[in-house]
Amino acid sequence: MMKYRLENKKVLVALERGEELFESLYKIIKELDIKFGWINGIGAASDIILGSYPSSTKQYVKKNFNGEFELASIMGNITTKENSPFIHIHATISDEECNAFAGHLFTATTAVTCEIILNISDKPIIRKECSEVGLYLWDFNCG
To answer: What is the CATH number assigned to the segment(s) 3-139?
Structure first.
């Protein structure tokens, strides 16, 4: 069962085997009413989907990674998109031979543990659609 502790605008998170990363983080965001946060973490995961976003096509290309991988690094943020919390994470994973793969993280299930720090702020950042890029980007001109 996921554990977390809030201390001085930081949330320390420990996920256990079988817990899906995004599902767990969204639960914490809801429980603590997090408006903005920066995500850093390490661990091990399976059932991973990474992606890249070629600007020429404006569509994600996704790749599945089955089996266990090191989560060498996860980094991302928590913002608001269309009035709901939105998690955006990039990850670097490595296999048993230390071959690394990286990209936008769509899903990952904890294989051993996942240790995460959320640095949080009470001031939200809203994402606004940018048709030129095809993504929702940070908007500092929001109320």
So the answer is: 3.30.1330.80
Fill in the DSSP letter of residue 35.
S
| Other Cβ atoms within 10 Å of 30 Cβ, number | 10
Q: Where are the alpha helices (DSSP H) in the chain?
A: 21-32
| Per-domain residue ranges of the chain | 3-139
CB proximity list for 115: less than 8 A, separation 6 or greater: 12, 13, 14, 15, 41, 42, 43
Reported as a single tens digit per residue, the pLDDT across 66-82 is 999 999 999 999 999 99
- The pTM of this model reads 0.93
* Cα gap 41→13, rounded to integer Å: 9
